[in-house]
Amino acid sequence: MTERADAARNRQALLRAADALLNDHAPGHVSLDQVAAAAGVGKGTVFRRFGSRTGLFRELLAERAARLGAAMDSGPPPLGPGAPPGQRLLAFVDELALLAAENIRLIAAHERACAADPYSDPTYQRWHRHLHALIGELRPDGDADFLAHALLGGYDGELVRRMITAGGVARLRLAVRDLALRVAGVDHVA
Amino acid sequence: MTERADAARNRQALLRAADALLNDHAPGHVSLDQVAAAAGVGKGTVFRRFGSRTGLFRELLAERAARLGAAMDSGPPPLGPGAPPGQRLLAFVDELALLAAENIRLIAAHERACAADPYSDPTYQRWHRHLHALIGELRPDGDADFLAHALLGGYDGELVRRMITAGGVARLRLAVRDLALRVAGVDHVA
DNA sequence: CTTTAAAACGGACCGTCAGTCCGGATAGTA
DNA sequence: TACTATCCGGACTGACGGTCCGTTTTAAAG
């Protein structure tokens, strides 16, 4: 069963409104009342569509991450399947750095909204699975699960903000690339 | 001017009460009203002593971290000054793993209470400065600031909880040790 | 073009919680 | 004992996430 027309319209309006508000307010200071008002709908609609504050921000992040997700699952190498794992890893951390840089405020807001259960976020899980698999190939001896989480820790909202403030996107890209190389074992990659 | 006797007594009572409540409730579900009630004082006292929720949890963490802080600043090697940086690094991440394992709930609660400005926490800063200096010595070429944050990311509350649930403290210690070795450059350390 | 029922809507309402405020109590000093 | 700076308690406020239910809209069937 497909979503009713007004429902779909309101969903979009809410996502756009939340997005817009994120640019004008501190990450933790966007209330759902504000989002509803900005979208021109009632508050109940927010919860009917997204279930909770967490749900709203998860969906917002999922939207922004959709392109990367597709590219990494079925796009051309080196990001997509086909390239050796070391190259895929580097391509991925690099793309993720760009994504994070372009969405710092969303990431910060998402982080807080999902703080109660960060690892169950679908987007995070997807990234983690990807890294887990690649690291597992590159370093069968290491704790790939932990290392994947550690790499993703490099995209923490506040950390990204600081890196970009002092050093720009270039610094962030170099830093996560270097970390990935170290974590995965530079020998296997080079 | 020193703190009045009743003030000091209440400060201790509040810290003990918060500590105790942390063991019985989910990390985000300890309200300051509860803490005040459990300590047998009024709510106003909580704010007079600690300024805010954030302040309370910062002080609680500082208390638990005091011993490690002293050992790392002026204790015997390899944790304290005197040992080569690689050994100090390993000793530190190992001790921090133990500290984290013993205080999982506090760490999770602290994380949330301080989420608005995590890097300004005195304890976090102290740890970061220490790692920053050691990594800077071991890898003058790397982004020591970023790498120090990345290492500390390995002690995220939820991550620690998962590691210990599946693998115990031993797994956590091995994992952070391995990560530190990689980050610092295994050649310099071994 | 009706009819109709499921689906969606809005916004008042609720419970919780961090943080404030001030009249009253108390500790330490002279 | 008298005095004052300090501290105390807990009622109060404002904000926010989440719920509820009477009303409206959609869209499919007749």
From TrEMBL, chains A, B:
<dbReference type="InterPro" id="IPR050109">
    <property type="entry name" value="HTH-type_TetR-like_transc_reg"/>
</dbReference>
<protein>
    <submittedName>
        <fullName>TetR family transcriptional regulator</fullName>
    </submittedName>
</protein>
<keyword id="KW-0238">DNA-binding</keyword>
<feature type="DNA-binding region" description="H-T-H motif">
    <location>
        <begin position="31"/>
        <end position="50"/>
    </location>
</feature>
<dbReference type="Pfam" id="PF00440">
    <property type="entry name" value="TetR_N"/>
</dbReference>
<dbReference type="InterPro" id="IPR009057">
    <property type="entry name" value="Homeodomain-like_sf"/>
</dbReference>
<feature type="domain" description="HTH tetR-type">
    <location>
        <begin position="8"/>
        <end position="68"/>
    </location>
</feature>
<dbReference type="InterPro" id="IPR001647">
    <property type="entry name" value="HTH_TetR"/>
</dbReference>
<dbReference type="InterPro" id="IPR036271">
    <property type="entry name" value="Tet_transcr_reg_TetR-rel_C_sf"/>
</dbReference>
